[in-house]
Amino acid sequence: MPYLTGTKQAASSTALRTGLGVPGYAHPLLAPTEWGELTRPGIPLDWVVLNVADGPGTRPDPHCLEAAGRLRNAGIRVLGHLDTARGGSPFGEVISEAHRYIDWYRVDGFLLDRCPTERTALPEIRRMATALRTLRDKAHIVFGHNTHPHPGYAECADQLVTFRGSWNDYRWSQVAEWTADYPPDRFCHFVQGVPLGHLDEALRIARWQGAATIWFTDRMDRSGRTDPWETMPGYWDEIVSRIGTGVSE
Q1: Binning pLDDT at 50, 70 and 90, where does residue 224 land?
Q2: Separation in Å, CA 243 to CA 9, 62, 169, 194
Q3: What is the pLDDT of residues 54-111, one digit of tens each?
Q4: CA distance 138 to 135
Q5: Which residue among 159, 178, 188, 234 is buried most deeply as judged by most CB within 10 Å?
Q6: 91-105 vs 62-73: helix axis angle to the nearest 10?
Q7: How many CB atoms sit inside 10 A of residue 71's CB?
Q8: CB-based contact 218:233 (threshold 8 Å)
Q9: Could you give the CA distance from residue 191 to residue 64 in angstroms, rounded to a whole number?
């Protein structure tokens, strides 16, 4: 399978540590089992996104506050969800939402969802990331491009989401050659509709493409009628086990 564009191979290794990045479960009242499972010892979590109401909401939510507190007490990084609307969200609005996330939920960083990819938008996104880091010391910043952006974005974020989509697209996907200049812990892949029988294959693709943070699920969006990221995969125990033991090449 052609997992690379060009001839330079991305960083890959059977020893690569793979962790889970949770894109955003449903509200804790709707998904109590999912939120509770995240604090079970031994779950290889890199971070969990807290999306209260398409952002932080208009007032503190006690259920989200409790869920975020449990995660942070367990040493798990919690990220606030900020929608950049492909560069259409006003700078002041995004920073205001970030303030609320920090004041109410003490988040450790942010996922900038629907982040633009083109070079022309880079200065404004760089400005936004710089401002977020002044609000929260050592903030972990993830750009949710969901595809490969201009390589300049890699210089102003801790991680980039360079794939978000279906298993059918992922299994034939290619990775931009410039990503080979960065370590795997800079990249994230979110894939829906991955069958259990192809889970090992999906993990191998992530390793060969150099993405150390992943979220694979057998859930599907069903033509936009459901959100595949709001609940845990049906093979939750299996994927935790496979990440823990590694995948043979």
Answers
A1: confident
A2: 22, 33, 22, 15
A3: 999 999 999 999 999 999 999 999 999 999 999 899 999 999 999 999 999 999 999 9
A4: 9
A5: 188
A6: 70
A7: 22
A8: yes
A9: 25
pLDDT of residue 15: 54
SS3 231: coil
Q: Which of 164, 233, 229 is nearest to 25 (CA)?
A: 229
What is the pTM (predicted TM-score) of this model?
0.92
Task: Name the one residue in this structure whose structure tokens are 């949770």.
Answer: 22
- Tell me the β-bridge partners of 143: 112, 160
Distance (Å, whole) CA 151 – CA 73: 35
Instruction: Yes or no: say if 38 and 69 are a contact pair by the CB < 8 Å rule.
Output: no
Give residue 217's Cα distance to chain centre: 13
Mention every residue, 6+ apart, whose C-beta is less than 8 A from residue 5.
174, 175, 176, 177
Query: Rounded to the nearest 5 degrees, what angle is found at the Cα of 175, between the Cα atoms of 10 and 208?
Result: 45
Q: Report the alpha-carbon distance of residue 215 to residue 229 in Å, rounded.
A: 9
> CA neighbours within 13 Å on the CB side: how many for 130?
8
E strands in the chain: 19-22, 45-50, 78-83, 109-113, 140-144, 159-166, 187-192, 213-216
CA distance 195 to 174: 20
Q: What is the DSSP string of 22-56?
A: E--PPPTTT-HHHHHHTTSTT--EEEEEE-SSSSS
List pLDDT tens digits, range 165-209.
999 999 999 999 999 999 999 999 999 999 999 999 999 999 999
